[in-house]
């Protein structure tokens, strides 16, 4: 890989910060390490890296995990000091420990991919943005749901139409999707906003800006994170939006975004994998999200850019700030 500094040019929209720092010509796969080899690393990151010729899994850092045939380190510190050939890291640990790892990797001059949510607070991610800028590395705050098949076609379909109402229903069974994950109930773990932020990442990608006007948060007795939340949004564009997040849904799972417009009703279903217009399926595809993430990360590294959009995390923070809290029955794993 050759790297040639070019003048800094920062282009900022209200949502997305993309920074160009270095022009990078990639001549061979980027050597990448995964930090935190747990559920999402095994389910998605490893297969996506394996099937993307622009990356090569060079190492891992995981206290209990690892990948056969790949050198594993107990900590990111030992990885960074022992393996100067590792050019990028994908941070797949829970959000509460992501800042420290990201800061170390950036200081060591490595490109950084952040799993969602990009951090436990907004300010810490802003610090990472400044660090990445001064180090000239790419920082990518990923929102995997934005790469679901129906998201970009939905954004296109909505262009020029008047949105009247938006209803998000994101209801799943926490025991099925997060068995034994203690961190998710700890401060910074986000509780039901861990999946809910995926819906918010789609809403913020397909619709004009809105802000939280009301929220109710249901905390199981003795837990530090909510098991359910209801949000109301408003915005300059004039439509109302609601979001209903619940982790107590057994049976069929629901990940739907309904958008009523002056020209019909669109439903983005199954977390964005299916798109229906006036009840008719117009698009359905299998899971492509993480393949899209790694394509984008390669583009960012090659272009010397970063991509950080904090708007989904801002909505969650606002819900915690504005939300009325109630205590509901205890939750046991
Ligand atoms: P996980 O399996 O519970 O944790 C991932 C790995 O992080 C663990 O195997 C562990 O590896 C390391 N880790 C856990 N706690 C740690 C701590 N306190 N300090 C340092 N390392 C720690 O979690 P996950 O489900 O993969 O989720 C990780 C991130 O991906 C979360 O931000 C989540 O929102 C996001 N995500 C998850 C899913 C999903 O379906 N699970 C989907 C999309 C995104 P070692 O013990 O080996 O170090």
From TrEMBL:
GO terms for molecular function: nucleotide binding. Coiled coil: none annotated. InterPro entries: Gfo/Idh/MocA-like_OxRdtase_N, Gfo/Idh/MocA_oxidrdct_glycsds, NAD(P)-bd_dom_sf. It comes from the Bacteria. Residues 31-140 form the Gfo/Idh/MocA-like oxidoreductase N-terminal domain. PANTHER family: BCDNA.GH03377, DEHYDROGENASE. This is Gfo/Idh/MocA family oxidoreductase. It comes from Neoaquamicrobium microcysteis.
